[in-house]
Task: structure prediction
Amino acid sequence: MEPIVYLFIGLAILIFIILFFTLFPIGLWIEAIASGVHVSLFSMLGMRLRRINPSKIVRALIKAQKAGITIDRNKLEAHFLAGGNVDRVINALISAQSAEIPLEFEKSLAIDLAGRNVEEAVKMSVNPKVIETPVVAAIAKDGIELRAKARVTVRANISRLVGGAGEETIIARVGEGIVTTVGSSETHKAVLENPDLISRTVLNKGLDAGTAYEILSIDIADVDVGRNVGAQLQMDQAEADRRIAQAKAEERRAMAVAQEQENIARVQEMRAKVVAAEAEVPKAMAEALRSGKLGVMDYYQMQNVISDTRMRQAIAGDGAAPDAAGESAKK
Result:
């Protein structure tokens, strides 16, 4: 045979070996056989064709086999294809078995696909978690504001991880319980003397219903006295009343000024009419003298009466001058 033929045969064998070790993970297959997990090379090839990382599935099966947990390989592959975390599920099952927490394989798959960290949930069932609420402001019946902060110790309720509410709901419900408890207290001193009153009241409300957690305890970390809201409200009401009274007083003053201006206008109008009427008196007297209805003696007698009246007014202090009255009498 020609040397070129041997060369082609050698290249073909080399390519075959490379493709074989590329498509068939021999090392992973040997590792599975040594661990007691029976997965054939063709099954691993099928995983590669289905775009599944064989090492993820096989090593998860190895961990489950060593922990004595029976796992369905097809469901594990389906979980991987659905975007689940295979390692997290297996670790959660192993931890739950060690802690004697009942957790089924299908349940762990559902929890993981729901977006919950099933491994963290199992750890939280063993080691409870402390959730610290933000500062909650509440007002007692005496109008004093109290600012309280609570620490809520919870553990995961695995049976309610799918569809259960999260930490935000726990924090909101605890804050609502604090506001209700402080608001129903007669005085803020009662809450300061017995802060455990808040804990007992909140725990009795069953705030963990419908959540993925079970509340173990609620501890009040801090209670501070805030503003005197009742006094502030009274001050605001007094200020509002003062402004209303001031506005009404301004309204009355404006009405009084307007009435005074109207009265002045009326007086001036009446004075104008009097002046106009007095201007007609000399004309009427002259007409009476010309027509003979008024005699000269009657006129002098009327002037004497006028002079006498002015003198009396001057003596009484009415402001008229006696000299003027005398001059008028002489005239």
User: Anything to note?
Assistant: Strands lie at 129-132, 136-139, 144-156, 213-228.
